[in-house]
Amino acid sequence: xxxxxxxxxxxxxxxxxxxxxxxxxxxxxxxxxxxxxxxxxxxxxxxxxxxxxxxxxxxxxxxxxxxxxxxxxxxxxxxxxxxxxxxxxxxxxxxxxxxxxxxxxxxxxxxxxxxxxxxxxxxxxxxxxxxxxxxxxxxxxxxxxxxxxxxxxxxxxxxxxxxxxxxxxxxxxxxxxxxxxxxxxxxxxxxxxxxxxxxxxxxxxxxxxxxxxxxxxxxxxxxxxxxxxxxxxxxxxxxxxxxxxxxxxxxxxxxxxxxxxxxxxxxxxxxxxxxxxxxxxxxxxxxxxxxxxxxxxxxxxxxxxxxxxxxxxxxxxxxxxxxxxxxxxxxxxxxxxxxxxxxxxxxx
Length: 348
Hints:
Order of helices and strands: HEHEHEHHEHEEEEEEEEEEEEE
Number of strands: 17
Strand content: 25-35%
Number of domains: 2
Distance between the termini: 59 Å
Strand order of the largest sheet: 4-5-6-11-8-9
Helix content: 10-25%
């Protein structure tokens, strides 16, 4: 499409409209057969052209995933801003779920393990594209995959896909340093849950309630669900209140001595309907812990929290909430989806 190199595709150099004509014809055929198109190796000009092409639903926002941070295949935040602005799902390449301790037998001499499987799972699950598995035969980590979806395989989507936060751009200009602070969000009713992924932060960053997309008077609960800085236990990450007087502090996670290992934090930010209300963290074992694909209604007061949603009959959900009084702790609950595919649960 860019006319580089020898071959018949150089015809795009012969006319100012040849490239657009090609994309239009591709789009028309896809619509005829009811097929969607995902762009790959796209340029800003093709993304802008896609606004006229209804079959184009997604585009790759990062390089091929070669499991090496040095080639920046993980950098999707800035591209995500452009793709989101034109209504395209922002997709990452296939990911590898098998961790570094997995056996590489049968890999044919090629490294088919991933140093940062939790990070890549969060990246893919919060994107607007597929959660595509690239593991070698027999090497897929099912537990890691299930962090992204329901028991029936449906991806737990957020309302807003992952993209660079305005605060990341702002902080980057303070000392001309790169600040990869990205967020996605789920909106249910009038409430908003924000999911923040920060990578290689050179120093601590403070995000205000407004930075996170809320009214400045809103009270929040933040939980570092996964991080390269914390233990891998189920509730090991930091849990704290965020409000107008107490911004969200994202710990510095600079580059590591081994440049091929990522340093990062994944933080779930949940709203408190009132400062003394119960707070829903959602599914404790999912990346998008609160998703409209799972939850339909959430009602929180200072005495109770009630949720309703859907799932696969017999599916066991690991839900978590934060009580309004005392220490900030997670109150877990195990809930079984009914035979009709629905569930309801109340705390306390």
